[in-house]
Write a structure and sequence with these properties.
Layout (H helix, E strand, L loop, with lengths): L1 H21 L2 E3 L8 E3 L16 E2 L1 H5 L13 E4 L17 E6 L4 E4 L8 H6 L1 E5 L3 E3 L4 E6 L5 E4 L6 H4 L3 E6 L5 E6 L9 E7 L4 E6 L4 E2 L4
Parallel strand pairs: 1-2, 3-4, 7-9, 8-10, 9-11, 10-12
Antiparallel strand pairs: 4-5, 5-6, 11-14, 12-13, 14-15
Length: 221
């Protein structure tokens, strides 16, 4: 009996070493085809086959903000309930679903069709009607409709989260009955804090500005 147990132990050890040398781990298979290969056991209908990632509430995930850094880029979790906290790594967590950690933006991002909004939805922002000589855009503004015939001086918003906002678009539309003069200026905190241009915009025409990471730029200038 002792000889049998010793032989069995040695065989298990040899198999473990062989698998380690291959750099692969197999579950329900002796020939893993990847670093981790989980094969379903279709003969056992009473046993569920799946891979379960860590599950926690949004609040529990938020409490671990400091634990997720560059080494955890791509980490996957499943949020069971709750929503994230603004200005933290869980800011985009809006409900139950899978999220992965994106280190370049320091944010948890929804996977596929999860309930959290995509980045486009986040930055699309508000539509604002302006009927005054001056207007300073808010970071949440996206489309500005001017209705002041004498011209409007528009100050574009200063964006503090420069990397995450690269590519954001601001659209300004002249909805006056005639062509109007529009003056555009960078926000005080942006570089350079100067007038971007004085433009005559025809009726029902517009112009777009794109955030480059340091300033606003118009591809139409």
């Amino acid at each position: 009996m002792k000889k049998f147990l010793l032989t069995s132990t040695m065989l298990v050890g040899f198999v473990t070493i062989a698998q380690a040398q291959q750099g692969r781990v197999g579950i329900n298979t002796t020939t893993p085809a990847a670093t981790l290969d989980v094969v379903a056991n279709t003969l056992d209908t009473a046993r569920p086959d799946a891979v379960l990632v860590p599950r926690m509430t949004a609040a529990e995930l938020n409490s671990k903000n400091a634990a997720y850094v560059a080494a955890q880029n791509g980490a996957l979790v499943f949020v069971t309930s709750g929503t994230g906290v603004a200005s933290t790594k869980t800011a985009n967590v809006t409900g139950t679903g899978f999220y992965y950690y994106d280190d370049p933006t320091s944010l948890w991002v929804a996977v596929g069709a999860a309930s959290a909004p995509s980045r486009y939805e986040t930055i699309r922002g508000n539509v604002v009607s302006v009927n005054a000589a001056t207007y300073t855009l808010l970071p949440t503004d996206n489309v500005i409709v001017t209705r002041f015939n004498s011209g409007v001086q528009i100050t574009l918003p200063s964006l503090t989260n420069t990397a995450a906002d690269i590519g954001r678009v601001i659209k300004v539309i002249n909805n006056n009955t005639t062509a109007s003069a529009l003056t555009f200026t960078n926000g005080a905190g942006d570089s350079p804090a100067t007038i971007l241009g004085n433009l005559i915009v025809n009726q029902n025409r517009g112009i777009e500005f794109v955030w480059t990471g340091t300033s606003w730029s118009s591809p139409q200038k």
